[in-house]
Amino acid sequence: MEVRKLRAMAPLLDSYISYLDDGNQPFTTPGHKQRAKLLDPDLGRVVDLDVPLYGGLDEIKLTRGLLEQAEGLAAQCWGADWLRFSTGGSTHANQAIIFSLGKPGDKVAITRTTHRSVLTALVLAGLEPIWMVPEIDAATGVPIGIPLREVERVLLEDPIALILTEPGYLGTLSDLPVLIEAAHKKGIPVIIDAAWGGHFGFHPSLPPHPMQLNADAFVTSIHKALPGYSASAIAVARTNLLDHARLEQGFESTHTTSPGGAALASIDGVRALMQLRGPELIENLLANVNNFRDRLTSEFGNDILLRPEDFAAGRFDPVKLILRANMLGADGIDIEKDLISSNIRVEMADRDTLIFEVTIADDSSTLTKLADVLIPILRKHLGRSRNSATALSWTITPQRGVSLREAYFGKSELVEATNAIGRVSVDLVAPYPPGVAVLAPGEIITQEILNGLLESKAEGTRIAYATDHTLTHFRVLAK
Ligand SMILES: Cc1ncc(COP(=O)(O)O)c(C=O)c1O
After folding, report:
1. In this structure, are residues 285 and 118 in contact, taking their beta carbons and an 8 Å threshold?
2. E strands along 357-460, which residues?
3. β-pair type (190-193, 217-221)
4. Of 91, 120, 172, 436, best ligand 1 pocket probe by most atoms within 8 Å of the beta carbon
5. β-pair type (82-86, 233-237)
6. I need a surface site. Which of 120, 133, 292, 399 has the fewest CB within 10 A?
């Protein structure tokens, strides 16, 4: 039976189940001792299946070496020579890898679409960004990755690493082989935040994973595109251009010392599942996604979902379902409200865009249900189509005031929007999507930026990360 086979291939998953079955009597953490139901049944439902790594999956002294064994199996699976399991999400995995690069004051070339976890990691590590701006697809308004000329431009400034986000939040990818080659010609490593690309490389119709493309390191969330436990992630590297000891130090100095066994066992189990049945499960997923696409496009036209054909071959994740509410003349937030009333939750919704995260845990019944509920809602909200309102993020040329680190640790104050002009932003401010920062910490707030942000907001774009997201006030460096 497949379930038993999976357990035999996944030492941490096996140990997790054995621990629960064997009736242990712990005098260790966690304090619930898998007996919280005796204190309160509801609390018990939440915590009693929680088994720690130390004293649970393995002995307190890790004498059985099960984590190392499971990480070794995963390293083989992804073709890496260093791989660690994180219970702190891609947020922590990004930190771990960024901590292993260089020293405070060094510069890294980094995409402007970077997730804030990477930015925070740069602040903590004392690295300074040299920003790269993505190219935007004129037809869809979607960022389609960093062009080679942008990488060639920043390489002239001698960064110690190239840091990319691939795929982007909307499923698009840069032309990675040429970017990786350009960085390697300069002898610098390429780090890829592939938080949303955990399924890549497991089917010929999906993009390859970063190790297959010769990248030096990547992180991915096992709980996003793969069926892992919340906040489970892997940090993965090859050590030609990266240092094994520094990677280990970066990981250990930022990870919890009490990792939850469920996250670890789920990474192990998901890796085994993908090795055992990945191609077959993804084949089914692709078929279900294509049926869903056919139903929606036959009703509302080809433009209402982003399609692989909208982009260069291999530059879009074919299982990504992105609904373009603007093409229907509908407000994505209204659509989301109606979906929530039908007990359907979406990954992201703003005025123009809704993201439905689908994975191998979906099947024809979940996607049929989504289409059955969604189609009447979309009919109800049909209006006059409009262009996507995302232009601001790539028309801005950032003006550096102080370093990222100085801004982050500096004394700050909230000032009214009009008084913020000419001042140094302490916040990252990014219209979402595309999530491209209009302001990064340390950059100067100009009249053009303020006007642009206010206009985007008035058009209904969500302005992410700003302390005051109404944009009445801005958090700036105190004088
Ligand atoms: C590109 C990117 N990187 C990193 C993260 C952080 O991932 P996690 O939630 O697993 O910590 C996210 C989360 O959405 C993300 O979109």
Report:
1. no
2. 412-416, 430-432
3. parallel
4. 91
5. antiparallel
6. 399
- Answer for the pair 310, 386: CB distance below 8 angstroms, yes or no: no
Report yes or no: 242 and 84 within 8 Å, Cβ to Cβ.
no
**Residue 192: CB partners within 8 Å, gap ≥ 6?**
163, 164, 165, 166, 176, 210, 215, 217, 218, 219
Beta strand ranges found along 316-381 (DSSP E): 321-324, 348-349, 353-356
pLDDT digits (tens, 9 = 90+) for 158-217: 999 999 999 998 999 999 999 999 999 999 999 999 999 999 999 999 999 999 999 999
| 210-260 pLDDT, tens digit each | 999 999 999 999 999 999 999 999 999 999 999 999 999 999 999 999 999
| Number of the ligand 1 atom closest to the C-alpha atom of 221 | 10
444 bridge partner residues: 424
Side chain identity, residue 46: V
Tokens of 83: 């791989």
Q: Is the CB of 193 inside a 6 Å radius of any atom of ligand 1?
A: yes
DSSP state, 272? H
